[in-house]
Design a protein that fits this description.
alpha+beta; Alpha-Beta Plaits; 6 helices; about 55% helix; 5-stranded antiparallel β-sheet; 2 domains
Length: about 170
């Protein structure tokens, strides 16, 4: 049991987490072993994502004063929350983990100011990361330039192969 001071600290910390993170994803983890939870936390930590098991009743109190108050109805049962600034990476890690561990259920979340349901979280998980999107754009931009250069090089080779007796 938490005493009154611990509850105040918990509420304050959770309010800060809900307000200061760009992405909040709510999950149910009932049935996962401690080893599985530690593995998931480790994967999340590698990407700067905080994965926290919540105390639902006082978490709902913390939610009341934040941009995430619409998520209040998701806090029933064995609930854990992923807090991060990269919604795509956190959704991707949770989605991938849920595919191999059926006891992890994605419930919904918030990305920026958009409330996401379970399908919304899955859609976010399928988006390219910022680095992948940049690589795709660079590939698109670089492709025409490299083709143009190869055409010019091919033309110059043909011209250099022409000798006075061949023309």
């Amino acid at each position: 049991m938490m005493n009154k001071e611990q509850k105040k600290n918990y509420i304050s910390e959770m309010e800060t987490q809900f307000q200061n993170n760009e992405a909040v994803i709510v999950t149910h983890y009932q049935g996962l072993t401690m080893t599985q939870l530690d593995e998931l936390r480790g994967q999340m930590r590698e990407h700067g994502i905080k994965f926290t098991i919540t105390k639902n009743k006082i978490t709902k109190i913390a939610l009341e004063k934040t941009k995430c108050k619409e998520l209040s109805n998701l806090f029933t049962g064995a609930t854990a929350v992923a807090f991060s600034d990269d919604a795509i990476m956190s959704a991707r890690i949770l989605s991938k983990f849920a595919k191999t561990n059926e006891n992890l259920k994605l419930l919904g979340g918030i990305m920026g100011s958009d409330v996401l349901d379970q399908a919304g979280v899955q859609n976010v998980a399928n988006l390219p990361t910022l680095d992948e999107a940049r690589a795709n754009i660079i590939g698109i931009l670089a492709a025409p330039a490299s083709k143009f250069i190869s055409i010019l090089l091919a033309r110059s080779e043909k011209m250099s192969n022409l000798t006075p007796e061949n023309s």
